[in-house]
Amino acid sequence: MTVATPAPTADFTGSPARVLVCRGCGTEYPLAAQHACWECFGPLEIGYDPAALAQVTREQIAAGPPNIWRYAGLLPAGLDPADRVSLDPGFTPLVRADALAAELGLRAPVWVKDDSANPTHSFKDRVVSVALTAAKRLGFTRFACASTGNLANSVAAHAARAGVPSMVFIPADLEAGKVVTTAVYGGDLVAIDGSYDDVNRLCSELVETEEFEDTAFVNVNVRPYYAEGSRTLGFEVAEQLGWRIPEQVVIPMASGELLTKIDKAFSELVEAGLVEPPAGGWRVFGAQSAGCNPIVTALAAGVDEVTPVKPTGIAKSLNIGDPAAGPYALAAVRRTGGWMAEADDDEIREGIRALARTTGIFAETAGGVTVAALRTLVKEGRLDPAAETVVFNTGDGLKTLDAVAGLVGPTYRVKPSLKGLRAAGVMG
Ligand SMILES: *Cc1c(COP(=O)(O)O)cnc(C)c1O
Ligand SMILES: [Zn+2]
After folding, report:
1. Cβ(122) to ligand 1 under 6 A?
2. How far is the C-alpha of 421 from the C-alpha of 120, rounded, in Å?
3. What positions belong to coiled-coil segments (predicted)?
4. pLDDT, tens digit, for every residue of 228-250?
5. Is residue 118's pLDDT more than 90?
6. 2 Cβ contact list (under 8 Å, min separation 6)
7. How far is the centre of ligand 1, averaged over its atoms, from the C-alpha of 342 (Å)?
8. Residue 24 within a domain
9. 28 alpha carbon to ligand 2 midpoint, in Å?
10. Which of 50, 204, 239, 419 has the fewest CB atoms within 10 Å, i.e. is most exposed?
11. Domain containing 374: what range?
């Protein structure tokens, strides 16, 4: 494996970010466009100055805008609004889901954090806004990504808003709803005849080339900055609960990064003195589809190593067969006393319908995976039905209509007359 030469180090003055630190061996590097450790090839993440994080107050956050930038003091970039490359995502609804709780047999409050309400209708707007704001600071002049769908939408839209050229790489077999909602923004869209893992490997090769020197791949060469944007979901849930951390969270996993970063956000809020942890701590639960379950399989087998799979099934946004943050997701779930569950395609469809029926939220397949996993975790006694639980819906059902299109439709088909309505039983 070769490692990209970092682009010139940009000035991150004013941000609480201090270094890039290897998640494997702890080696530190200056803030730059680098994503892998030269010592052990482990992934890098942002290291903050704890004193700078501890200076942030609830009052400062409350005085900020109603989007992720209210947490700018906790992010690696974007403190100055003029620097931001952003659709201003975040501060999405946290919806109390009593009917869903009743259906699944939970006795304590259940909340759905509905990130389909973001500008391009998935949680990816959070990570892209942070990644591209950092990318601009690092001097990149073109934006790109390897995507399972939602990331493609978000990068193309952010590039359009910023007036920056983009090139987005996707597997050719993505849902039409995700291809159209990327292409419409006008950047280059490259469909690869292969899996997401093929696309990702190709992009890892591209960032090394001279032709792509000017290009920030949000989830490759600026991945450490990208990953930090997911923390805003953890910050928001805590703030929206009145500065409390819920006892249990259920999170969908593709690379596993989102799960690790929500857990990290909770830890940081406690360390910064912004919240008290729940008396028994919080427990983190992960969800994958049965067609792409390498992290769930590793947990069930009691091993640290995640063996890659060839993904199948309808939850395409989660179809990463070789999940980069898999071992860290396992560690977070084990450390907090949580668990993981998988859902097959029929369970995913039923999960989508159950959430829609009980909350009025229409989730994409990833949301169906998460609701189905919640059902299984309760049934298996892994998740405490008497503890407060937050479930993350990360995407919008309008992008994956085919998942349920054949299962739901008009209740009646009737001639346009009262007689016709009566005959069909519409009037009782
Ligand atoms: C990307 C994505 C995820 C998970 O992302 P990771 O951080 O890679 O685990 C979850 N849900 C949806 C809808 C996504 O698009
Ligand atoms: Zn290392």
Report:
1. yes
2. 40
3. none
4. 999 999 999 999 999 999 999 99
5. yes
6. 208
7. 15
8. no
9. 8
10. 419
11. 94-121+230-405
